[in-house]
Amino acid sequence: MSEVKIINLTKSIEGKYILSNVSIELEEGEFLSLLGPSGCGKTTLLNAIAGIVAIDSGEIFFGNIDVTNTPTNKRKATIVFQDYALFPHMTVYDNIAFGLKMKKLSKEIIKKEVMELLEVIELSDKINNYPKELSGGQKQRVAIARAIAIKPMVLLLDEPFSGLDNSLKNTMHKFIMNITKKYSITTIMVTHDKNEAFKMSNKIAIMLNGEIKQIDYSKDIYKNISDIKVVEFLEEFNIIKGKIINNNLVTQIGSFEIKEKQNKYLVFKYDQVHIKYSKDKNEMVAEIIEKYYMGNYTTYILMYNMERIQINIADDKFDVGDKVNIEIKDYKII
Amino acid sequence: MKKDKIITKFIISLFFMICILPLIIISLFMFVDKWVYPNIFPSTYTLKYLLSVIQSKELPKAMITSIIVAVMSAVISVIISYPTGKALAHYNFKGKHVISILILIPLIVSPLVLVSSSHINLIKYNLHSTLLGVSLIHTIFILPYTIRIFNDRFEEIGVEYELQGYTLGGNVISTFFLVTLPLLRVSVMLSFSLGVIISLGQYLTTLIIGGGRVMTISIILVPYIQYSEYQLASIYSFILIALTIISYTLIAKLYKNHLEF
User: Fold this and answer.
1) Mutate to test the interface with A, among B168, B174, B188 (most CBs of A within 10 A)
2) Hey, what CATH topology would domain B58-260 get?
3) Complex-level ipTM
4) A187, A269, A276, B59: least buried by Cβ within 10 Å?
5) pLDDT tens for residues A12-43?
C-alpha cells in the first residue's frame, strides 16, 4: 500500500488554477522532489498536503487513512519551512520537544527522544542554545530533528537549502538523505534546483503551471521524457521543430522516422553530440559561432543549416569560425 | 564636523527644554510657597501643599480609579488589537484599506465629536458615569496606536511560526499560548503601557462620560491648573508621571527576559 497517495488535487484562486488534477503516489521511505520554476504551484501543493491550504477538490491519503479533511495538527505531515521557523523564544531542546509535548508524552520519554535526536544531528552541546545562537546549517538540523521527532507519515521540505552556501548545501544534502533513510521517512521536497533533485531523490515530479507534467524515478526522467514543456524546463536539450511528411519528421538537420503522427520535435541533449573537423568541402557542415569555457567542459554554439545547436563537450580544441561535422549520438522525437 | 556638533547641541538643548525643564519646574513647584516675578528661584519653600494632598481623602480614591480605568482600557485595547492587527497583517479581504484608515479616525477627528456620539450609546446601555464606560471611551483613543503595534509585529513574524505549531501537532489554544503569545510579548507590553499612559492622561473624555462621578487624577488636576493652583497641579502631575513610570516598569519587569523577541 502507498504511504502517500494524492488523487486529482485541484486548487484555484480567483478563477486561476494553482493546482490542476495533481496526482502522486509514494511508497514508504521514498524521497520525492517537486521540481519546477518559481510560481508553478510547488509550495501550494506542499501546503495542501500539510493541510495549511484548503483544496477545491481531490483526495489525500496517508496509508489507508483519508486525511483530505483532517485538521493540520492531526495529519502527521510535518513541514520544514524555507527559513526553518524555529521558535525564537525556545531553546534547541524545547524546539525539538515541542511536537512531543503536544503528543502529551511523559517528560522522561520526551527527554530520551530529544537527546537521541540531538546525538543524531550532532548538536548535543547546543541543547540550551537559542536559535539566534546557531549557524544556518545548525538551524536546519534542529528544524529537521524537530520535524522527525513526532515520527510523521510524511516529511515536507520547502526549499530547505535556499539560504545556504554551496559547501554547506552539500553537507546538508548528505545529512537529510541519511536521516530520512535512517528513519525511513517518506519525504516530499520542493526545489527549483534540478541537480539537487536528481542527487537527493529517488522520484522526481516536474511541475509546470500547476500541473505535474512528468513523475518518474530519477533515473528514468530523461529516458521517459515526453513533454516538450518538460524538455524546455530542463534546459539541457536542443529542440528542433520539424514537419511531418510521410511518417518522417523533416527538420533542417535531417529527416527522422516517427511512430506517432503528432510528434514534431527532435530533441537531443547538449552532451549527446559529437563533432569533428570537416574534411569534405562539399559536405554540409556546421560553423562554430560561439565558444564558452565552463570549467570542466566547453560549450559550443553551432549554426547548422539555419538551426542553432548547443553542445557541451570536454574537448576545447575547436574555435569560433571552425567548420565541423556533427553526429547526434542519442535523440528523441516527441 | 562643526555643523554636526551644533546640530547635536541643538537637539540636546531641545530635549532638555521639552522633557527635562518642565520636570524640574514641576518638582520645584511642589515645594514653593512664594515665587514671584522677577525671581529666578522661589523665595520661600513649604511642605504644606504636599502634606495637604497626601492627607486628602480624594487622592487614594482618585489613584485607584485612575489605575482601574487605565488597566481596563489597556486590557480591552490589547484584546481588540490582537485579532485586528492579525487580520490586517495576514488576511486579504474586501475593504481592508478602508478599515486601516477608519482605525485612525480617533487621531484625525476631534475627540469631542467622538465622545458626544458615543455618549448616547453609553447612556442607552447604562454605562454612563461608570468605570467601564469611561474605560471604553479611553479605548477608542488607545486603539489607533495598539492596533498599529500588533499589525507591525504580525507582519514581521509572518504566519510560519503559527503554522509550524499546527504541523507539529499543536491545536489552536496550545499554539497560541506556547508560540504566538510569547512572540507577541513586546507588542503586548508596549500596547499595555501605551494604553495606561493614554488613559491616565484623558481629561475631557473622562469628564464627559464620567459625569463628575468617575474621579481620576486628571479630573482633579486640570481645575487646579485652570485656577492657577500651580503647587497642587504640580503635585498631581507628578503623581500622574509616577503612575505612568510605575506601570511601565512593572510590565517591563514582567517581560524582562523576553524583550529580544
Assistant:
1) B168
2) MetI-like fold (1.10.3720)
3) 0.84
4) A276
5) 988 899 999 999 999 999 999 999 999 999 99
